[in-house]
Structure formats: structure tokens, C-alpha cells
Amino acid sequence: MDIGILAEAYYLPPSKKKVQDILDAENIPFGTFAKNVDFRRDIGIEEVHVTDEMPSEVAVKTAKNVISKSGISGSEIDLIIDFTSLPQDYIGPTWSAAGLVQEAIGADRAFCTALTVGGCASYHFAMRSALALMRSDEKINTVLLVAGDRTPDLNKTYYPITVASDGGGALILKKGCDRAVILGIETISIGRLHDVWYVPGLGRKKPDEEASETLIHMYCNMKKFNEGVIIRNFFMFRKVINKLLSRIGMTMDDIDYFVYPTFSTWDQKYFCEALNIPREKVSTEGLRHRGHVQESDMVINYARAVEDGAIKKGDIVMVVSNGAGFAWSAVVVRH
Amino acid sequence: MTDKKSVSSSAVGIVAMACCFPEKILPISEICLQEGIDPDFILENELDIGQVRVFEGEWRSDPAVAAAKECLSRAGLKPTDIDVIVDFSVLPQDYVVPAWSMSNKIQYDIGAEHAFNIGFGGGGVTNLLAAFKFVSALIKADDGVRTALLIASDVSIPRNRVINPDQPMTILGDGASALIVSDSADVLEILETEISSDSSRHDVFNIPGGGLAHPDRIDLYRVKIDPLKYSVSSSFDALKQLSRKAADLAGISLDEVNHFIGPNISGKDQSRFAELFHLSDADPFGKNRRQYGHVQATDLVINLSDFLEMQAGRKREFGLVCSHGWGHSSGAMLIK
């Protein structure tokens, strides 16, 4: 039986902040760092969404949006997977926002859990796990995947990658749904790069160090990032895409549209060039006024492309991402 | 991956298990001294835990690496035979989860280069049962998965072993465990796994400090169980219901289940568990609780290993692996 995406929705807090102000406040360096790229000059993000809400509140609003859009009730949901990738209200894996989401939408029959891996690719890991359960368990028919992120005040820049926006994304997977039917999904993990990006937390506080919010800031091991991620990033994209296309008997020419994270102008440019994809076939419009919403980029960019008519009924769409940890992932759907 | 043309009907089961406990032993008297608790209070609250193991290294994931390697060795498998690694840890890890995940580190440390890595959190001990449910599904319905490695490492926050010092509910020990699940197991077959969540108790077992709600409150960076949200009767009622459901789905009656395996929370918790399932041997794994304390879902693995030893040479019987998850996330897995 086909499994499709019944609906996808997002929540972006109404408040925005200018990226140049963020870069100033966070002391992001001036000048070029690679191939004549200047982070401050070339990032391509002018503003991002910001909020004081807890990540769980963002997730709850997002979940309510997708429930409303899908036309189903919370009690129809059998499984909730929280695929948030940034630190939440409370420490994981002890706690996740899934329970709060369950309560808020009245999903009283659902089992809820959190997918605790994958960075921005957690979208695909959550989907792959959900699909397996839906295919093998006749009692699991409707699944909610939801994420909600809020970055700490002075930790919005993930230098040298992107500037993060607060927000959330959610989708409903349903058996027998003929919209956005999932044709195949693929994920690859490279565990050697597990600590390229990390949040130290109070558990890593040194004895003479003061407990402060900086301990839940995201940090980058630049040497490992340059030597481990940059040199293989597009090789890994090709690998995961080719593996998926080969298995479902398609080629790149069959893909009508690519949904891709909104990191930066240079990243979008390299992605199109490295994979020989025309720019108009890739979701890039959200970059300027939104920036990067972690794992929710995939949901938001898909939803926006549908709203804008870039994705039409019957189109073959590939949603592709990488994620800290590190992972590369792709899913193909027939919209 | 991914999607198999049809869902496999092959039996999925546990091929091997291993636990790793640190060498250092801390008697309860010493823990009470460190945490300022009257030892008589531990006795009064019927915890029946005599000592715990204590990890003193830098990286909390280290015991899981050792457990994973031992598990592979027991299974006679190579690291490259593993298709997916699933983390079911409960307590804080090397870095903050979900921004970081131990399963990625384990993949690297053991050389499981063909695996992809996932993990499930937010469910306490029931994380293990959630992991079993998803792994069984992946093996049955995902072309890329035949063999899974499940891992957890749980190391207590310093001076946070006695949970709820005013009314102690358990004492946390450190340790790690690993299991290999595949479609070629011939010893412990997983028949059904049922899980449910009660959202009103989402924070019954929680660490209030260190997340975005209280990022700099080191005083709140402690595991606590909310006594107002933990209801013994509703937790155990939910567990009984799930157990019946798992048995029904497998086409047997709960009366046909010979062995009940739960976590090593306390003597008092075990008494309720024994009463719930009318156990003839009220405390079959009491020695594990007394020597290791409560090591989250690793309790289930060490008890399951003992169960397997007890079964050696006997005809196949049914066992139920259970967790009430303090009433938030409950699970029951029927095995043969």
C-alpha cells in the first residue's frame, strides 16, 4: 500500500532580526575563508525569524498547523516522532517535546518518541523509521513527524555554514494517501564526524567554569569540518542520490524538483554545479528572508514550493539533505 | 534502504547481548555520605539496593563501546555486518542530545562503516522497547536492514544517584549494554512489542536544568521524579493492559507467559510488579538490583541475559519484557 504525505506545515515566529546585527553581536569574522567566499558578504541571508518561545511551544504550534491543514483529528494519529535536532526545553535523551505535542493536539491513542540523531537529516531518519513501522504494523496508519527549534540568543550563526532561524516543520504520513507518495528513501551515516558540531552542555562544565547559556551553544571543530565534511560533502550527496535513484529505477532527469536546505548562496551554487542541476529546479527562495531552519528546512521548502506552484501534482520531487553527526539523505516522492 | 516489495514474515529476534559495568563499586553507605542522606531512609523506602558501579572516565559513551564490541564477539559478527545502530540511552551523554548522538560515535569506534545510525529518546527505560519496535519494523520492511545493534550508556550526574532524596525512589548505577537483533536469531524471538504514552506525564522523569528552560541552573541539573505526576496505580494498570494486548496479538493468554522481566528500580517497585503479574518467584533478578542499582534500560538487558541462562536446556517458553516508564511511556515486549 502507498504511503504519502497527507499534509506538511510549518510555523515561523513573526519576529525577525537582521543578520548583519546578529553577525556583529556574535563577533563573526570579516574576510574570506575559502575560495574567495566572505561569510558576511556572501551568506545571502538578510534576516531570520527569532522568538523567546521554548522549542516545545514552537513544536506545538507547528503540530497544530499541520493538524489543521490535514483535516484530520489528533485522535487519528497512531505515532508521533519528534525530530527536533537542537537542544530542547529540557535535556535529551531524558526528555523530548513529543509528549507536550501529543497532549496539545489530543493525540490520545498515539505512542510518542523522539528521534535523537541526524542533525538536519533527522527529517529523513524519522521518515525512514516511520515508514518501516507503517509497512510492517497494520495498526500504524497515520504518523505525525514534528520538529521545533529555538536557538540561544547569541548562537544563531553556525560559522562557516549558515545563520539559523527559529521555527518548526511537521508532516503527516498516511497509508493509502495518493498525495506525495513516497517512492524510496536512503540515508548514509559517517560516524567518524560525530563531533564536528556539538553542544557541550552542563555535563562538560569544567570545575572552575561558571554555568551559563554558552554551554548550550553549538560549537564547530573547524579542522574536522574542513578536513572531514567539506572535502566529501558533494561526493556523499552524489552517493546517496545515486544509490536511491538506482534502487527505484530512476535517473536525475526524472526528478522535476529538488527540495534542499537553505544554508547559504555558495552552498546552493555548489550543490547545483556539483550535481549538474538547473538552479530553477532547486528550492532556494527561502534563503534571503528566512535562513536555515535546521531539519524543518525540508518541510518548509517543500510547503513553499507547493504554495508557489513550483511543485505540481504528479511531479517527481527529491528532498535531499545533509546533517551534523554526520549524515547524507534523500527521499523521492511523487507529488 | 529501503522499501521491501513485501513485508518479510521472518522471525526477528535477539542474537546476542552484552553489558559493561565499570569496575569501581560504591556502597550505599558511601553514596548516602556523599549526598547527605540518612542510610536508614534508604531502608525505610525499601529500595533494596546495596551498591552501584561508578564510571570515572571522561566520556560517558566509553562503556557502550566496550559493550558493543563484546556483543559483536558473542554474536560472531563483524562490525561491517551491522546495518543500523540504535541508541536507547536515557541520561545525558558526552554532549547534548539531540544535537549529538552516541550512535554515530559507536559506529566509528567499532568500525560499523555500513550502518546508518538512529536513536530514540524521551521514554526512559521504554526507549529500549521503542528501539525494539522500530528495529523489528526496519528488519521486516526495509531492504537495507537485516542486522541491528542496539546500544545504551547511562552514567549518573555527579551526586545525583539517590533520586528524590526526600522520598527515595531508586538509586542510579552506571553501566552500558548492547544487543544485536536480526532475522536469523534462533534463541530469543520477538513476538510483539506494544507501547503507549500518557502525555500528561511527559515530564514525570526529567532533568529540569541545562536545557533552554533553565540553561544556567546547575542546581536543577539533576534527575527528578515528580511525585505528583507519578501514579503507581495508573502506571501499573497501563502496563497490565499493554501486556495483555501484546499477549492477545501473539494469540496467547497472559497466563501462558512464564517469565516477567522488568527494570531494577527498587525492592518496592519489584513487589508491585510481582503482585501485578502474580509471580511465584517475587524477585528473580533481585541480585542484579542489589549489586548494580538502577541502570536505566540496561537493567532489562542484564535481566534478559539471566533469563536466557535460566532457560538453558529447557523447552521454549514465553517471557514478557516490561517497563512502566514512570507512567509516561510504557511498554511490553513478548518474547519466545
UniProtKB/TrEMBL annotation, chain A:
Coiled coil location: none
Recorded GO molecular functions are: 3-oxoacyl-[acyl-carrier-protein] synthase activity
What processes does the entry annotate via GO biological process terms? fatty acid biosynthetic process; secondary metabolite biosynthetic process
Q: What class of enzyme is it?
A: transferase
Where the record annotates domain Beta-ketoacyl-[acyl-carrier-protein] synthase III C-terminal, the positions are 245-334
Q: What is its EC number?
A: 2.3.1.41
Return the InterPro entries for the record: ACP_syn_III_C (IPR013747), ACP_syn_III_N (IPR013751), Thiolase-like (IPR016039)
Phosphoprotein as a keyword of this entry, yes or no, is: no
Which superkingdom heads the taxonomic lineage of this protein's source? Bacteria
User: One Pfam annotation, family name?
Assistant: ACP_syn_III_C
Q: Report if keyword Isomerase is assigned.
A: no
What keywords were assigned to this record? Acyltransferase, Transferase
Q: Which ranges carry the Beta-ketoacyl-[acyl-carrier-protein] synthase III N-terminal domain?
A: 119-187
PANTHER family in the record: 3-OXOACYL-[ACYL-CARRIER-PROTEIN] SYNTHASE 3, BETA-KETOACYL-[ACYL-CARRIER-PROTEIN] SYNTHASE III
Full protein name: 3-oxoacyl-[acyl-carrier-protein] synthase III
In its UniProt entry, the species of origin is given as Syntrophus aciditrophicus (strain SB)
